[in-house]
Amino acid sequence: MLMLVCLLLYPVVLLLSWLLLVTLHEMGHALAALALAPGTVTVYLGSYGQPTGNWQLRLGRLTLLVKRNLLRWRGGYCAYQQPTTRMRWPQAAFILAGPVLPLLVASAAFYVSFHAENGSHRLVALVFFFAALVSTLVNLFPGTGTIRLADGRVVGNDGTQLRQLLFPSPLTRLADRAARSFAAGNYTESAELHLVLLQQSPPTRPLLCTAIHVLFQAGRYAEALALSTRHQRDFAAELTDDDHFSHALLLSRTDQHVAANELYSKLINQPQPYPMAYINRGYTYNLLGNYDLALADFDQAILLETESSYVQANRGLALLKLGHEEAGLAAIAHSLALNSAQAYAFRALGIYHFDQGEYARASAYFEQAQQADPTTHALGTYQQQARQQLENVSNAGGPIPQIN
Questions:
Q1: 257 and 299: one domain?
Q2: What CATH number does residue 325 fall under?
């Protein structure tokens, strides 16, 4: 009878052991991250980073997301902010803590159960110990398989990550160098390194997304658009609204404004509108000179995202272009009240004074925009036009030129 009970309980013990091992494994990663890294730590139990369908618990810097359906657990994932130091031991400690903690706990339980007077828990402790031992060995042995995270990234097991950390391949070193360049704000160097990575490794979705972002930050919009077009083609089934929005922005930055607004309109006209699409479509309408349509989009954006200095600045420009001078200047003043360094507010004032023929004031405002944010769209062109008109001020007899 006892043997029958043991046989019936064995699968249950295995299942509970596995659930406990997953929990201890991810908590090992989490404890190391909390001790060695700044910022928050998020542990997913039962999924590889799936943000929905979970119970949530917050404990200081630690957030636990536990998959509700225990029978559909697939593993776990720990997300944290990596330390800025280039030393490898914190990352190695983080990787090792996951597989080692379950073995330590199982060893302690095994020791206690075999030294206690009541030995009824010895079978459970023995099964758990061997399960933990196998789990530790499997996780620390570099495997050939991969794990696809919920955000689309593909990673190896702990052993693979540890091997890559301690004995990095030339490709891994190149990827690390590209990431460090980007983190340091050296977008030009990072862009070049990412292009080399794309030539030497499979163009995965995460790599393409990162390369597109880096090229955008480097101001290499045509190259970023080419990669984005490739991304849209090769990963069509996995694209998100963010991907479509980024593609539309690149279309606009390469002066394909009509195509950009068509894509923004698709994002707006879906069952769940994408709020940022109103803002960028309004901005693009400003560039096209359709100021009434731009104003409508900015008003809608304000309903969805109140107190936005960027929206108020560009809404003010649309109002000024439509001849509503008082309302336009008030909107720009409100933008600067929300953010005294809003470059697009200075840009709008520069365009307003340029249209009035006040080129010195326009140039001064463009300079303020330059100091606030050198990447402000088309700012160099506007500044050049203002300076050109200052040089030609003695010939001011014809109509006053205007810029969008």
A1: yes
A2: 1.25.40.10
Same domain? For 159 and 40 the reply is yes
Is the four-CA dihedral 174, 176, 177, 181 of positive or negative sign? positive
Whether 404 is covered by a domain: the verdict is: no
* DSSP assignment string, 344-400: HHHHHHHHHHHHTT-HHHHHHHHHHHHHH-TT-TTHHHHHHHHHHHHHTGGGTTSPP
Q: Which residues pair with 45 in a beta bridge?
A: 66, 76
Phi/psi zone of residue 323: left (φ > 0), alpha (ψ -120 to 50 degrees), beta? left
Q: Taking the CA atoms of 178, 182, 183 and 186 in sequence, report the sign of the dihedral they define.
A: positive
Q: How many CB atoms neighbour CB 242 within 10 A?
A: 12
Q: What is the predicted pLDDT for the residue at 31?
A: 94
Of 147, 166, 185, which residue sits at a domain end? 166
- How many CB atoms sit inside 10 A of residue 289's CB? 11
Answer whether residue 403 is part of any domain.
Answer: no
Among 269, 224, 265, residue whose Cα is nearest residue 247 = 224
Number of domains in the chain: 2
Q: Give dist(CA 138, CA 19) in Å, integer.
A: 16
Question: Are 187 and 283 within one domain?
Answer: yes
**Is 400 within a domain?**
no
Mean pLDDT in each 10-residue stretch from start to end of the chain (404 residues)?
Answer: 50 72 92 90 92 90 90 87 73 92 90 71 79 90 82 82 85 86 90 93 88 94 96 92 95 95 96 93 96 96 85 96 96 95 96 93 94 91 90 61 60
Residue 136 is part of which domain span? 2-166
Whether residues 322 and 201 share a domain: the answer is: yes
Run of H or E including 257: helix 257-268
* Among 79, 75, 64, CA closest to 99: 75
